[in-house]
Amino acid sequence: MYFASDNTGPAHPAVMQALQDANSGYQPSYGADTLMEEVRAQLRDIFEAPEAAVYLVATGTAANVLALATLTRPWETIFCAPRAHIQMDECNAPEFYCGGAKLTLVGQEDKITPAALERAITGWVKGDVHTSQRGPLSLTQATEWGQLYSVDEISALCAVAHAHDCPVHMDGARFGNAVAALGCTPAELTWRAGVDALSFGGTKNGCLGVEAVIFFDPRHAWEFELRRKRGAHLFSKHRYLSAQMKGYLADGLWLQTAAAANTAGAKLADGMRGLPDCRILNEVEVNMIFATLPRATHQRLHAAGAAYSLHDGPLDEGPADAPLTARFVCDWSCDEGMIARFLDIARG
Amino acid sequence: MYFASDNTGPAHPAVMQALQDANSGYQPSYGADTLMEEVRAQLRDIFEAPEAAVYLVATGTAANVLALATLTRPWETIFCAPRAHIQMDECNAPEFYCGGAKLTLVGQEDKITPAALERAITGWVKGDVHTSQRGPLSLTQATEWGQLYSVDEISALCAVAHAHDCPVHMDGARFGNAVAALGCTPAELTWRAGVDALSFGGTKNGCLGVEAVIFFDPRHAWEFELRRKRGAHLFSKHRYLSAQMKGYLADGLWLQTAAAANTAGAKLADGMRGLPDCRILNEVEVNMIFATLPRATHQRLHAAGAAYSLHDGPLDEGPADAPLTARFVCDWSCDEGMIARFLDIARG
Amino acid sequence: MYFASDNTGPAHPAVMQALQDANSGYQPSYGADTLMEEVRAQLRDIFEAPEAAVYLVATGTAANVLALATLTRPWETIFCAPRAHIQMDECNAPEFYCGGAKLTLVGQEDKITPAALERAITGWVKGDVHTSQRGPLSLTQATEWGQLYSVDEISALCAVAHAHDCPVHMDGARFGNAVAALGCTPAELTWRAGVDALSFGGTKNGCLGVEAVIFFDPRHAWEFELRRKRGAHLFSKHRYLSAQMKGYLADGLWLQTAAAANTAGAKLADGMRGLPDCRILNEVEVNMIFATLPRATHQRLHAAGAAYSLHDGPLDEGPADAPLTARFVCDWSCDEGMIARFLDIARG
Amino acid sequence: MYFASDNTGPAHPAVMQALQDANSGYQPSYGADTLMEEVRAQLRDIFEAPEAAVYLVATGTAANVLALATLTRPWETIFCAPRAHIQMDECNAPEFYCGGAKLTLVGQEDKITPAALERAITGWVKGDVHTSQRGPLSLTQATEWGQLYSVDEISALCAVAHAHDCPVHMDGARFGNAVAALGCTPAELTWRAGVDALSFGGTKNGCLGVEAVIFFDPRHAWEFELRRKRGAHLFSKHRYLSAQMKGYLADGLWLQTAAAANTAGAKLADGMRGLPDCRILNEVEVNMIFATLPRATHQRLHAAGAAYSLHDGPLDEGPADAPLTARFVCDWSCDEGMIARFLDIARG
User: What keywords does the record list, in alphabetical order (chains A, B, C, D) (predicted)?
Assistant: First the structure.
């Protein structure tokens, strides 16, 4: 019963096979492998963006901070949600990579609204040498709270940003989940709506460790390559990043694994809605559920070995019926049996 | 005929198998996987260092710069050889990770001598606020020119560094090759000789992409963990780094692959010594040969598809007998047939 | 009628005289001047802190960011008020000097409360490698909104910070105004209450450009010296910083100029309270008044050459009776005639 | 007998007077003072550069590193002489301000030659993502060894740099001394020869603490302003920087003080040439003399209170006739009596 994160499960067999297939003979290093040519073509095709600059790195944080650093000058501020991964979970990596740039938190909600963005941007006076200068907007799709921006919402946000000459980055660690849930095209969800750079996640969705960074305007290409190398994120045996991504993209696997994770999330949520004293706190749009369960339920689940993030505490002490908040994430490998077992135990 | 680098060949089947074995079920992320426990024990055992702090990253540059950053304050200077990887091949990554530290080049040779080190360190006046402050020594073992420091040489260099309160880092991207060639123990070559931190290479010697960083004094552990995270080098699905390293260390595989590469290097060198107009420029101690061959020979080899680094040029124009310098590297997978074919073509 | 800032007026004649007095003969450079010895003794005496490390720089931002950088590791977050100078007016200098540290805004008010501080600090999970780590608290005394922390308030805030192992910095660009208004001793307002490092302002209060940085624990001394030099803030002809500070401290001048500015502020506020349609927005505790006046009043004042910061706008267009917010600051040189004239014109 | 540095003497009375003159009434802060307008016009006039962007900072290191940071990307390397101030005397400030850029030392001499520069630049392979990228050339005029580049030499060096798309910075902490000695115009020595940015020194040559940064191409203006602010080098009471520079430039004072220092240097050198066992090591072109004197002579001079930098040692122990190297610098205030007394004592 593994709901701790979509990074605690195994890689998809097809990705493992692609890795195995890549493991013979000679390949030039540092991104000059022939597999990378294929990956570049795949991603340009999927995004209907034949000029896009496409790169691979091994971690989602690397994708985010290298993309952002390319779009940000050190005296600028990045606009993001208070709960954004770049704000909460990257140990100042964005500030480090951007040479000391600032993060300005927009609003107090999980999702950024155009009005809040407008207020945040205009909160910094344009052309005043004393203040942080206005830099990029970073959106997370799906958000850390498992919510989705619609194509229209993204368009509206990009319009606000661009009206102030701010570029737009999208943290798409769960981009596949978003596309699978929204049923739109990758292009609609990104450059057609105004997104300038995308962190396209693979790791959480069936890979071992690979993320793509896509700049829809290729003028950023060389600077990104230098930043990736300087950040120590350029792989010598790059073929093993390429192979993962190739296997992940082939035959739409990335959308199938994302859809599977979303479906599992929906099933788990459905089941939880039937649990006594369970309150689901978010709208379950992808593979993440935030919910309260009574302490006693958590105790039973933990005793049975269920793995998930308990946000409240303590687990061991206090009233048995006290509601404690937790996060549950389903990955592509989450099967019905596991969900059924979890619900059984939760029911008590 | 692949002699371009030891990062252009495949991973060892045993490492691939370890990866496959790791790919089932749940594993906590970010280094809390059970495999990492095993790897930590393996490395502490191999290095006879039961207290050592042991971490994994995916690139050699990451290992070097994160280790160095942990040992360096931003106003200090790192002492290294003019041809060190950190100086020549990391696009200012050391300066970036160390917050703007300086590199001071020691001597003009491939290997650093104690006398040159003493001169370099004392070239910066201790306690003078105006100058760079004295920071760590970084040694490369084996060097970029394929040379080895003996245990005594390392001890002598560490003694000079420590006498000036400078810690010592060793870039061991080819540490396996060094141990295999010198026939000493890993402990003798590192902490017993005075080395404080080691980048222990896996990638060039049979892995897909994994390097260990070992601090023999564990007080650096938490700072390193923060630096690794902040550098975006902490893997979520960390099990796949652990698995590689576990397979690489099991049953002494790392020493076997290194010995195989060294043996191939020696065989290739032997063969090249018999070539007309070939001059080998370095002492072939591990798996790297620097040599001049006549332009015509290079042309024949290139036409036949041989891959290696040609340092001089141009290949296509000029006297046929002009000696052009090149680098040849053998990895663990380099077989006798490949060497024989190369020599055949070189002979003309 | 100059109320734009306390940095738009002249330096005090006694400070100018001290500068003149210092301008003869030889003085060792870079802080080894004999005047600096006197300044160090003066400040240790004033603060009853015979061991304190005392340094001079030329700008308030330099004092703040060098002091903070000495107390902060790059992966940490500084806690400050949303309107703090380090957040709003230093163009990412704190982030730059701290190697990419983050600023966490505490509460939504001008002054930080212990409860808000506790929430902010515990908002970052201790020992979690993924998040920003807990770093120093930075208090501004007097605040950007012209408010004061009492000795008890500072003690309570320092207690919260220290309970979480967070050091405390005080931005005292207007420290003199605070001491003059509160009637306590400098020691009571700083180290006795728990403050670890102070930016002690001179520039706004009668000097040309000099600020002291005081560490009550001298173990930070050498690191600060290196950071000051590396930041390009170590003056070669340091005697001219020392001389200013010496003249500023001699015979309690710094308290007299601060008291004069506070008195002027109180008089201006008193007068403004009698103006029709004037609303004073802050409690006038030192030399700063935030107030709304009708647009027509602003227009008259501007036409007459009054200088002050108009926060709302536009000045020229809109209803004559619309209330527009402005900031008025009195410096030590602000005389009664100037205030009277301003009020006359405001009255219309 | 003060020959320690040109930063150990007093400021020129005319500069002090300008400071005094500036000290009345209101002036907008942060560089918007009316005096700055005058200074900008003065410098554009002196340099025959009506479009130049002109800024003031308080230290020579700030001028150098802010100018260089504006011309350098973090992955680039700056080319400079091994003895350059930016390499030897700025405690990694260039690396800090340039975000971790590298310094490549050109040749082994005090002055850079075109051939050595060509070798140094081409030593970094263009377009190779692994290496430092080629960045600006920084020349020091006059050099740290008191030598001068002729206009032709500067032109030749700039031609090499520009042929490789490298911009050129000149560290002119002693620019006045150079112009006074060479008898050319400021324009000839800078932009006409190809210099892109100049640190124009005031501090060493009669001011209290002010340096100009001049970009001959004004497109760098706004970035420089942001960098100056972010570096905490923007003065609030900026009028006092402007006033110094205004007084320094008025009526050619800067050239008179420089000429006076050069003349004093020449006189001291002449006298020293007549001393027994004195060997002058550099060509005395400006105000700096490097020479060996017997230990006994140094002992007599020190006993008599002479101040200068002794590079060898120890002073107190060893053969009386052992030659010890020292540096002697004359500033604008160095009078004949002081020189005569020094020579008297040196003669014994």
Answer: Pyridoxal phosphate
